[in-house]
Amino acid sequence: MIVDIMNMLFNGTLTGAIYALIAMGYSLVYGVGGIMNLSHGAYFMLTGYLLLWMLQTPFFIGLEWLTVVFALIIITVIGGLTFLLLIKPLQDSHIAVIIATFGLAFLFEQIVLISPSGTEVWSIGQLRLFQGYTMVFGYPIIHQYVFLIVMSIVIVLLFALFINKSKLGKSIRAVSQDREAAGLMGINANRILLYTVMISALLAGLAAFLYLPGASLDGPAMGWGYLLNSFAVVILGGMGSLIGSVVGAFIVGYVISFTNVFVPYGPSWAHLVPIIIIVVILLIRPQGLFGKKELR
Amino acid sequence: MLNLKIVKEKVNDFPGYLKSWVKTFTGSLTIFCLLILFVMPFLSANQSFTHVFLRQFSLAMIFAIFAASWDLLTGISGQISFGHAIFFGISGYICAYLIKYQSFPIWLSIIISAVVAVIFGLAIGFPLLRLKGPYLALGTLAMSLILLKLFLMGSLSDWLFGSEGISALPGLAATPVIEYFILFIFMILTFVILIQISKSKFGTILKSIRDDEVGSDASGINTTKYKIYAFMLSSFFAGLAGGFYALYIGAVNPTGNFGTVLSFFAILMASLGGLATISGAALGAFFFIFLEYALIEIGVVEIGNLAIDFGLYKFAIFAVILIVIIRFAEHGILKPLLERLKDLWDLLLGR
């Protein structure tokens, strides 16, 4: 019994920590620019595969940490390109942005599928920083995941600091509150949006780097699962609210792990949790827990 | 809602309407294309060519119906659906199940499966109706992913025929030629119905809901009712296409009938032709089915040391095309294409 509780608590925290990062990025982009970037899940997936590909080339042997740096840079650039090429020109039409980013996510999935590593399950365990596990109350606590949880909290705090204190952070908040007024204050809203999308891609990439070495790359289709779950998290927490993303992430994480452990046929129901959350929240409290148009 | 006098006028007037329509450029072009499609099967004496090539046309017609149904829901009613594969797949499975395990006659199964798709449309439309725009898109995407997972790996999956699905279904008809004509007739019927709907008062109401839901609501239109109608109509035709597809392929399985790639196809084909044009969906369907066929036929091309397998790259190429279309020609290429053709025609006739 206590093993189950440990299982639930640990995995819930783990899931929450991962999604806190991913959802924060997604919610950021929406809060600042009103943009739904459907390729966000693909950023996560792509980072994982970028790491895999780089690890497979002889150039990086002995220099594994370099792959992480490169992958993060690349994914940030991809985020920036997504904005410049796709989102900015289509800002006026919601449907167009959605279809375009959906197409982009699909394209990324196809590109990975085509590549030599596309169809099997891979592991990038070389990037694991912490090996092994400790038994706590009969449940194996994997060290890499503890690292993830700690790092995730650190990143969230750093990010909160950044948003509140730094000049760029304040500009981002200004644009999210009132784009025109921010423009009148001399803030280049388009430039800020660009940085926002790049930051959100970076966050997704960080989440991938922290989590995937401990897990495995199950195939390019995994991007969609992360997209949907982040969507549920953001809906629960409130679109555009960063606190909401973090809180929502942990709530969703615990609900999913609870379902996995304690509900009969758990793992199957666990897939339904995000959609149930989405529907329920949108029916009873559409703005989510902390939702507001402004970044908080 | 139905004013008999107006309907009677329209029906009586039909020959005249038809005549004046045929005389327009678009009308005659459409008739021309339909005539070509009609004589297609008779053009070749080579049997194997007929089978393979003709079946591509049949496939295109199935997807034309599917894409048109998507266009009705998303382009005209503004209810963005990224999970259209739901109706397609559910109908395919029901049809397959009825035919194989309950020995229902083919036509009854198709109708029943389309009706089940409508019920699903209702069931899905209801909770998701509160969602708008991107939320609805993701909601429908989520639903389709859930159904996919359910049939593929959930614990119910074994009850639901698992990952292999149902196979060895009889075809739609005895020969590919008959299949072709059946689909041809259904495609024409579908398009006539959908285009008439889009031009009717009902269609205008749907468009007004798309453009300004608050305003429509304020004008006294029961937006919920019409949105549900839109879902049901769309899912009926999607279900019809799904049933035909199951029989065309001869088998159903989770990835093949519920896969995201199918929803992607609907979006792709309708977007190419142009959102809210309905007829654009046919253009898109034919374009992409034949592009896919061409890419697979081209197969592996060796340029120097590099071997490019076009067949494998086809979806990536489609995705790129979709992105380019949305980026540069959001309203599809049907209208600009028709205008250019008309100008060309006028040029040729010396006007």
Describe this structure in words.
- Chain A has one domain (2-116, 141-284).
- Chain A contains 11 helices and 2 strands; from the N terminus they run H-H-H-H-E-E-H-H-H-H-H-H-H.
- Chain A has helices spanning 2-33, 40-56, 64-87, 94-114, 143-165, 167-177, 179-184, 189-211, 222-237, 242-262, 266-284, and strands spanning 133-136, 139-142.
- In chain A, strands 1-2 form a two-stranded antiparallel ribbon.
- In chain A, helix 5 (143-165) packs across helix 6.
- Chain A is globular.
- The model of chain A has no long low-confidence stretch (mean pLDDT 83).
- With 351 residues, chain B is an all-alpha fold.
- Chain B has a single domain (50-348), classed as ABC transporter involved in vitamin B12 uptake, BtuC (Orthogonal Bundle).
- Chain B is 77% helix and 2% strand.
- Chain B has helices at residues 4-23, 25-43, 47-76, 85-101, 106-128, 133-152, 176-199, 201-211, 213-218, 223-249, 254-258, 260-273, 279-298, 310-328, 334-348; strands at 300-303, 306-309.
- Chain B has a two-stranded antiparallel sheet.
- In chain B, helix 3 packs across helix 13 (279-298) and helix 4 (85-101) crosses helix 10 (223-249).
- Chain A binds chain B through residues 36, 38, 85-86, 89-90, 93-96, 98-100, 102-104, 106-107, 110-111, 113-114, 221, 224-225, 227-228, 231, 235, 265, 267-268, 271-272, 274-275, 278-279, 282-283, 286, and chain B through 74, 80, 82, 127-128, 130-131, 133-135, 137-139, 141-143, 145-146, 149-150, 153-156, 260, 264, 267, 271, 275, 312-313, 315-316, 319-320, 322-323, 326-327, 330.
